[in-house]
Amino acid sequence: MNVDKCRKLVADIFSALARFFDALMSVLSVIFILMGWGGILLSALMLHNGAPFGVAMTGAILSFGIIAAASKLR
């Protein structure tokens, strides 16, 4: 009887941890997607203010990578 209670307790703990990390990943993915779009806008602003094209496009490409990686988290 004690073994069954212990197994249920362990299962409940891991279930709660799984729900917590699932919610955490959802929040982090939204934050990373917003950060990626902010990077794209920042790259456009840098290009507008006279930054070299390669620098601005490198930032934009990295931002698209952040968005793609964050989309995979969801």
Tell me what the structure shows.
The chain is mainly alpha-helical and 74 residues long. The chain has a domain at 25-74. The chain is 92% helix and 0% strand. The protein contains 2 helices and no strands. The longest helix has 47 residues, at 2-48. The radius of gyration is 21 Å and the shape is rod-shaped. The model has no long low-confidence stretch (mean pLDDT 90).
- Total count of strands: 0
Determine the number of helices (DSSP H or I, runs of at least 4 residues): 2
Calculate Rg over CA atoms: 21 Å
Mean pLDDT: 90
List keywords for this structure.
2 helices; rod-shaped; single chain; 92% helix; mainly alpha; 74 residues
Condensed summary:
The chain has 74 residues and is an all-alpha fold. 92% of the residues lie in helices and 0% in strands.
Tell me the layout of helices and strands.
Layout: H1 2-48, H2 53-73
Helix pairs in contact: 1-2
